[in-house]
Amino acid sequence: MIESLPTSLDTAPLRWGSVPLASRDPLARVPRLAPLAGYTTLAFRLAVRELGGLGLATTDLVNARALLLRSRRTMELIQTCPADRPVAVQLYGNSADEMRDAARWLEDYGITSVDINMGCPVHKVTRGGGGSAMLCDRDKTVDLVRGIVEAVRIPVTVKMRLGWDDASITAPLFARAFEEVGVAAITLHGRTRSQGFGGTVNLDGIRRTVEAVRRIPVIGNGDIRTIDDAARMRALTGCHGVAIGRGALLNPWIFHQLERWERTGDPGPSATYAERLAFMVRHFHLLVEHRGERFGCLSFRKVANWYCRVLRPGRDVQQRLIRLESVAEFDSIASGLRDTEAHRDDREWHGPELSIPVPSGPIERW
Ligand SMILES: Cc1cc2nc3c(=O)[nH]c(=O)nc-3n(C[C@H](O)[C@H](O)[C@H](O)COP(=O)(O)O)c2cc1C
């Protein structure tokens, strides 16, 4: 395990929007939940927040135009509540006017900060010039970002990839330009668009981006699954904080463990079977509370397989969970699993990594 972090981390003056931060300010240091469209719902965010240690969480990406039209689906995606703070809503789009107006609307709606998506590699988003395609036209993108920063008082952040491909690692240049127009922080997924989710995270590219900015925090992201991974990201890139996506689905306690590790040098024990089961129950009931029984059950089906991988309830329960229809059925399954608790070996939880589906095949067809 990497025990110490570069001392430069402790002296760099950080800012959050117009607010200067003490270098140890938790907003920059406390790990963030990276957005995972379809998974990082309000219910999941709240369930993770209850475990402790989580700083900023970000909603799924939402289209600026759809937000301005108050599309029902978009309003569901930005659903939040006072316990879900601090929270950023992530916008995508390529029209400067729509992005600016959507950011203004979000400010009035009471969101903590607005994040601009410049990382999504999926064709539906990039074909209109949004997501990672914004990394291809620097002047237009910087103008768009400046327009948003000037229109709102809340912090505006950017989440981006290293660049379009290996031949154009543009993140350091963009980061510097974003800092100049007033962006409050940058989250950097250390892959290029053409890498998709393949290969490994380029820590050197993140480091170069950290070195390119003067004051604002750069948050390192990609493939952090353990405390060691987070420590490595911090130590080798000099980043000011980390954002964790898939690793939080695998281990929702990771934020709490990181916070404890930073404070005491010991991440504490891994979650037991009983805690994992309780987390699943809490997640499900929050889904139902926010979306109603029918949609809550439908949403849960999407995540049922991960819970089955870690809880290993057997094929019969798995089949029932992936076709879940009602709260009563869920409660009866959970109570059956609780009855088997005493026979479970907690070591099972250190088992195989959950596979979170990512787009695959040639990236041009994503
Ligand atoms: C299923 C899925 C959905 C994602 N949705 C978003 C999104 O809405 N906005 C975004 O900026 N990144 C999105 N990402 C990228 C993640 O936020 C993150 O940058 C990437 O998964 C690498 O970090 P990780 O290894 O910690 O997951 C998504 C990734 C996955 C796998």
Brief descriptors of the model:
366 residues, TIM Barrel, two-stranded antiparallel sheet, 2 domains, globular, disordered N terminus, alpha/beta, 10 strands, binds flavin mononucleotide, 8-stranded parallel β-sheet
How do the strands and helices of this protein lay out in sequence?
Elements: H1 8-11, E1 14-16, E2 19-21, H2 26-29, E3 32-33, H3 42-51, E4 57-63, H4 64-68, H5 72-77, E5 87-92, H6 96-109, E6 113-118, H7 123-126, H8 138-151, E7 156-161, H9 171-181, E8 185-189, H10 203-212, E9 218-221, H11 227-237, E10 241-244, H12 246-250, H13 254-264, H14 273-311, H15 315-322, H16 327-339
Parallel strand pairs: 3-10, 4-5, 5-6, 6-7, 7-8, 8-9, 9-10
Antiparallel strand pairs: 1-2
The protein binds flavin mononucleotide.
Q: What's the arrangement of strands in the largest beta sheet?
A: 3-10-9-8-7-6-5-4
DSSP summary: helix tally: 16
CATH topology type of the largest domain: TIM Barrel
**Strand tally:** 10
- Give, in order, the helices and strands: HEEHEHEHHEHEHHEHEHEHEHHHHH
What would you say the CATH architecture of the largest domain is?
Alpha-Beta Barrel
Sheet-strand content, in percent, reads 5-15%
What is the CATH homologous superfamily assignment of the largest domain?
Aldolase class I
Name the ligand types.
flavin mononucleotide
Cα-atom radius of gyration? 20 Å
Could you state the oligomeric state of the chains shown?
A: single chain
Helical fraction: 40-55%
CATH class of the largest domain: Alpha Beta
Please identify the structural class as seen in this structure. Answer: alpha/beta
